């Protein structure tokens, strides 16, 4: 069959289009199926094998006392205290063969009874050794078991954005559930995710973290624990947060010994200050006061009966450095305070009325 000149032209155009158009987009392939060794086993399954038996379910019970509402209850019993049993559930992981388990503080909050369920089905009584609500960390110890499987703790300081993130836990009571994602960002301040009562810089991940995952481990591709799954945002989908494991290591040791974790507190409400922010404020005719065009932290309120108020700090002061460490933003100031010591004097350099001043502050204990 012979083609006419027009026919050959159409064929030529079709070949050119086929050559330069991108290939069709294939359906999404699970990442675990992409990265596999010659045996076909994915890095995810290998990582989970390393820690799976050390991930536990934590069941809690707490008794509360309430009074019967006469509208709903028997009028004869009105005003009499009635006990109600509240049950909760979360995850945790074993960090010591003698039964030391790391989890979230909110998982065991005010629990009267803690039961730890191992992957092999064993049920062990747990005792809360220590709780630190400020970092949302808690340590449980189980009795009646020896040589338990443990996880391998990694180094969260080595984690990079884009690294694999594997979340293991017991969401909705479904034991040993695994989800896969990546590290979305690092050093996400707790204050920016609505947790103003915490002092944490989270690892943010898109690995699914659901109710019941709290306290479970976040793993890297090697199966090392890099974080502790701790929170999900109610107003977002696909965003989860984990406490960096390096933050947890020191605190866990203190909690396991039954010690209280100290959190030095300055006692100010503050915002990060930059020349751009200062210019925007100073050009506003309704601004309450003019602020200096510098980098630092602006004090917007000094709370009463705090270290800052005792030292004479005022609203409008700009914090420039603490003990010689230049302060660039509010999160950094929080970190510097966290690394100071309660009742140990620090020198805070501030800018007030255009003049440098040194204020000597003795930090108090947070929530003291």
Q: Could you explain the architecture of this structure?
A:
The structure is a single chain. The protein has helices spanning 5-20, 31-34, 43-51, 245-256, 275-282, 307-311, 330-338, and strands at residues 55-67, 81-96, 100-103, 113-117, 123-132, 137-142, 164-169, 177-189, 201-205, 217-219, 225-232, 240-244, 264-265, 268-273, 296-302, 318-322, 325-326, 346-352, 355-361, 364-365. A 6-stranded antiparallel beta barrel has the order 1-2-3-6-5-4. The chain has a 6-stranded antiparallel β-barrel with strand order 7-8-9-12-11-10. It starts with a helix and ends with a strand. The model is unreliable at 1-34 (pLDDT under 50). It is α+β, with helices and mostly antiparallel strands and 368 residues long. The chain is globular, with a radius of gyration of 28 Å.
Q: What can be said about this structure in brief?
A:
The protein has 368 residues and is of the alpha+beta class. The chain is 17% helix and 36% strand.
Quick tags:
7 helices; alpha+beta; six-stranded antiparallel barrel; 36% strand
Task: Report the radius of gyration as a whole number of Å.
Answer: 28 Å
- According to DSSP, the number of beta strands is 20
Main sheet: strand order: 1-2-3-6-5-4
Query: Averaging pLDDT over every residue, what do you get?
Result: 82
Q: In which range does the helix fraction lie?
A: 10-25%
Report low-confidence residues grouped into runs of 5 or more: 1-34
Distance between the termini: 94 Å
Report the β-strand fraction as a percent range: 35-45%
* Multimeric state: single chain
Structural category is alpha+beta
Number of helices: 7
Major sheet, described briefly?
Answer: 6 strands, antiparallel, barrel
């Amino acid at each position: 069959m012979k083609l006419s000149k027009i026919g050959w032209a159409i064929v030529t155009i079709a070949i050119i289009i086929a050559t330069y158009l991108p290939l069709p987009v294939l359906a999404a392939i699970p990442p675990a199926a992409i990265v596999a060794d010659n045996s076909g086993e994915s890095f995810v399954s290998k990582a989970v094998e390393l820690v799976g038996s050390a991930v536990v379910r934590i069941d809690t019970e707490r008794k509360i006392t309430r009074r019967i509402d006469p509208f709903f209850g028997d009028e004869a019993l009105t005003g009499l205290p009635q006990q109600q049993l509240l049950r909760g559930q979360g995850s945790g992981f074993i960090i010591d063969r003698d039964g030391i388990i790391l989890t979230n503080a909110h998982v065991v909050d005010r629990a009267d009874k803690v039961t730890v369920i191992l992957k092999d089905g064993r049920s062990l009584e747990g005792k809360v050794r220590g709780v630190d609500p400020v970092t949302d960390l808690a340590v449980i110890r189980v009795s009646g078991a020896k040589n338990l499987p443990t996880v391998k703790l990694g180094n969260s300081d080595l984690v990079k954005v884009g690294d694999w993130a594997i979340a293991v836990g017991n969401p909705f009571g479904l034991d040993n559930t695994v989800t896969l994602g990546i590290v979305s960002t690092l050093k996400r301040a707790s204050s920016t995710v609505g947790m103003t009562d915490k002092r944490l810089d989270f690892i943010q991940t898109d690995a699914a973290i659901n109710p019941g995952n709290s306290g479970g481990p976040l793993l890297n591709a090697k199966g090392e624990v890099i974080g502790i799954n701790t929170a999900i945002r109610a107003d977002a989908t696909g965003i989860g947060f984990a406490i960096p494991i390096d933050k947890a290591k020191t605190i866990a040791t203190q909690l396991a010994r039954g010690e209280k974790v100290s959190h030095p507190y300055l006692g100010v409400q503050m915002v990060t200050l930059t020349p751009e922010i200062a210019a925007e404020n100073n050009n506003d005719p309704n601004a309450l006061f003019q602020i200096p065009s510098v980098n630092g932290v602006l004090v917007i309120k000094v709370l009463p009966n705090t270290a800052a108020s005792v030292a004479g700090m005022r609203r409008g002061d700009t914090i420039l450095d603490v003990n010689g460490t230049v302060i660039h933003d509010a999160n950094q100031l929080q970190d510097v305070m966290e690394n100071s010591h309660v009742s140990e004097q620090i020198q805070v350099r501030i800018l007030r009325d255009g003049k440098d001043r040194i204020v000597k502050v003795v930090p108090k204990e947070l929530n003291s």
